[in-house]
Specification:
Distance between the termini: 157 Å
Oligomer: single chain
Helix content: over 70%
Structural class: mainly alpha
Low-confidence stretches: none
Shape: rod-shaped
Number of strands: 0
């Protein structure tokens, strides 16, 4: 009687199927790992470009530009506020002058004016 070698017969077909499947799975795992490594490299490049890993990149430069713009706007707001205050004061002065001229140019204004002059002139 000849002894059977374990790799012969139906068992060897089953083993070869398992080895084939394992080889395909191993290939897919390697592909997946390579894709993961590529994704990690791309993520690192993006993070560096955006400035999330270090002080250089788009986000820090945009933040610095935003701060500069905010400072300019604040300075302009101060100038606008000062200009608005000056304009309001100027309008108020013109109204007071117009009112005084109106009162003095009218009959009642002349009477009041002459009464004031008499009052101060009498003392």
């Amino acid at each position: 009687m000849a002894s059977r070698h374990p790799k012969e017969g139906p068992l060897s077909n089953f083993e070869s199927l398992i080895l084939t499947e394992l080889g395909q799975i191993n290939h897919k795992v390697e592909e997946s790992l390579e894709i993961g490594r590529e994704n990690n490299r791309e993520i690192k490049i993006l993070r560096t470009e955006l400035g999330l890993e270090g002080a250089h990149g788009r986000i820090p430069s945009l933040e610095a530009e935003l701060q500069r713009l905010n400072a300019r706007v604040e300075k302009q707001d101060i100038r606008v506020d000062a200009t608005e205050v000056a304009a309001i004061e100027s309008r108020a002065k013109h109204r007071v002058i117009a009112t005084v001229i109106g009162v003095l140019s009218g009959g009642l204004g002349a009477a009041v004016f002459s009464a004031i002059i008499r009052h101060f002139g009498a003392n």
